[in-house]
Design brief:
CATH topology of the largest domain: Alkaline Phosphatase, subunit A
CATH superfamily of the largest domain: Alkaline Phosphatase, subunit A
Bound molecules: zinc ion
Shape: globular
Number of domains: 2
Structural class: alpha/beta
């Protein structure tokens, strides 16, 4: 086995893309990223399907695809209802890098990796990421680290920047300030921990690169349909400024490492970013057009009285929640919510994700924002009407064959790239929890809830007014970034075909650790030099003492409400 006394610094820039980095390097804006790329190896890092933050980072830090680690999104289906429940790091079924390295006696510093709440006991320290319910929770390991973090920076510690909140309130100036603050606080906290703790691995993630692309794309890109020159004069430089700030702070990190010949550096992102255009696909509208889904109306509604009450309450709740939130504040709203009966709450969940679906006459349905299709399966779903086996497969075959033919009558475009049967993308014990079909487009944000739309075509162009209603103007793409630099990186190397799931094995290998055979990814030896480019040692998780998952942490009502509110702010939930 290759032994190594090297250390490794992993810089995660959420949503970072070479589509932005390369032109800005050419303009002289990002000298430190330029140096890392010129002196090391780099290439695009292919995300997972779908390229969403929770499943992407979890795949990166476990080295396996979603069917093995379970985390398919911020939430998962509750098959007792048509609702979903939020999940967190305790639902991750396989060990992450920090678990494996702690077990091997290595010291780790983990900061702000998404989907890491609650924080886990590690050899070293851990600060949870964006799924953390709030600053008043125990988001650090050890717990007393929390107080220290507030003094590591000139600004109090921040987990999730309020970029979405200020964007929602029409204050891009404050959203911009929040993004820059988040980047600074994150680098300050990481530098502080590196200075005060022994470490073999530092793994930290900056959120600002993702938020800036989501909320500031329209100001930066003259070809965006909502581009306005007057607004661009004020905020057009924000996205670049956030990248520039990260680059400056990376320069500070590199300076800190000067003279330390034993440190390798990786820079990674979980997905790329690009413009959110006017193309929309309404999957439930398409399913209805195929007679596979029926929307409720006065004539066919077989809903029970309880369900009708839930539906009415849900619509009122959606409208009233934001008003209430402003009027009575988060704490009171949470208390009020606790009075709702359980049955009402689960139905509210279903109505949030699948508004207006008549479950008794529906064979397939979609939670439209996420590009997934579920078969209304007998024996699994509460009102399932499709029989497992031949009928289920025939229905999936039909959708796989016909949905990609969907054409936008306005442009002639075919926005659907491919419809995957879930087992074509994923394998492992959690496959059964995943959607029956996964629909891939150029980017997943092409999928829109039908809302008030009553037209016949499931593919259409949003009007500028409709586009302006969506809080984000940039959205995820499947190409992330990978840069390797340091004594074990191949100088001037180009890496092709790198995938998210290759990061965990590459990290272990760089730290002289064997790679569990359960990992689906491979060590990116093409990016490495010397003995690091040599053979990879293998081991099984059982040999390392890992067998099965620990206890799951359920969010309390207050925690759940907080996380939901923030996801809603990003446009993920109604
Ligand atoms: Zn992300």
């Amino acid at each position: 086995m290759r032994t190594s006394t090297r250390r490794l610094l992993v810089i995660g820039l959420d949503g970072a893309t070479f589509d932005l980095i390369q032109p800005w390097i050419a303009a002289g804006d990002l000298p430190n990223l330029q140096r890392l790329m010129a002196e090391g190896s780099w290439g695009p890092l292919e995300s997972v399907v779908h390229p969403f933050t929770a499943q992407a980072w979890t795949s990166m830090v476990t080295g396996v695809q979603q069917g093995k680690h379970r985390v398919f999104d911020f939430w998962e289906r509750d098959f007792d209802t048509y609702g979903f429940r939020l999940i967190n790091a305790s639902h991750r079924a396989l060990p992450a890098l920090w678990n494996l390295l702690s077990q091997a006696g290595k010291n780790v510093i983990v900061v702000n990796v998404p989907q890491t709440y609650p924080p886990e006991p590690v050899q070293g320290v851990m600060v949870s990421g964006r799924d953390t319910p709030g600053l008043d929770t125990a988001y650090t390991y050890p717990p007393e680290l929390k107080a220290e973090l507030d003094h590591a920076s000139s600004s109090p510690y921040v987990i999730v920047p309020n970029d979405w909140l200020w964007t929602q309130r029409g204050r891009p100036d404050l959203a911009r300030a929040e993004l820059l603050r988040e980047a600074d606080v994150r680098f300050d906290a990481t530098l502080h921990l590196m200075d005060t703790r022994p470490w073999d691995l530092v793994f930290f993630v900056v959120s600002a690169t993702d938020g800036a692309a989501h909320f500031f794309w329209k100001y930066h890109d003259p070809s965006h349909p909502l581009y306005d020159p007057a607004e661009a004069a004020c905020y057009g430089d924000t996205l670049r400024e956030v990248y520039r700030r990260c680059d400056q702070r990376i320069g500070e990190l590199l300076q800190r490492l000067q003279g330390q010949q034993d440190v390798n550096v990786l820079v990674v992102s979980d997905h790329g970013q690009g413009p959110l255009g006017p193309q929309a696909v309404h999957l439930n509208t398409w399913l209805a057009g195929q007679n596979l889904l029926q929307f409720r109306n006065r004539h066919n509604n077989q809903a029970t009285l309880g369900e009708r009450v839930a539906i009415v309450a849900s619509h009122a709740a959606q409208r009233g929640k934001r008003w209430l939130y402003r009027q009575v504040g988060f704490q009171t709203l949470t208390k009020l919510r606790a009075w709702w009966p359980d049955s009402l709450r689960t139905r509210l969940g279903a109505e949030t994700f699948f508004p207006g679906v008549d479950w008794y006459h529906t064979r397939a349905f979609s939670e439209e924002l996420r590009g997934n299709i579920w078969i209304n399966l007998a024996g699994r779903d509460p009102h399932g009407i499709v029989q497992p086996g031949v009928e289920y497969e025939a229905l999936r075959d039909q959708i796989v064959a016909t949905l990609p033919e969907l054409t936008d009558p306005a442009t002639g475009a075919r926005p659907i790239r491919r419809v995957w049967r879930r087992e074509e993308l994923y394998h492992g014990p959690f496959l059964e929890r995943f959607p029956d079909l996964v629909v891939e487009a150029e980017y997943p944000d092409v999928f829109k809830p039908h809302g008030a739309y009553t037209g016949a075509s499931a593919a259409r162009q949003l009007t500028p007014a409709e586009l302006g209603q969506i809080i984000i103007t940039g959205c995820h793409r499947s190409n992330g970034i990978f840069i390797a630099w340091g004594p074990d990186a191949k100088p001037g190397g180009q890496v092709t075909g790198a995938a998210l799931i290759d990061i965990a094995p590459t990290v272990l290998h760089l730290l002289g650790q064997p790679v569990p055979v359960e990992m689906d990814g491979h060590v990116l030896t093409a990016a490495l030099a010397g003995s690091a480019a040599g053979p990879v040692a293998a081991v099984t998780l059982a040999e390392l003492g890992f067998d099965g998952a620990g206890a799951e942490h359920s969010f309390s009502d207050a925690e759940e409400e907080y996380v939901r509110e923030r996801l809603a702010g990003l446009g993920y939930l109604g």
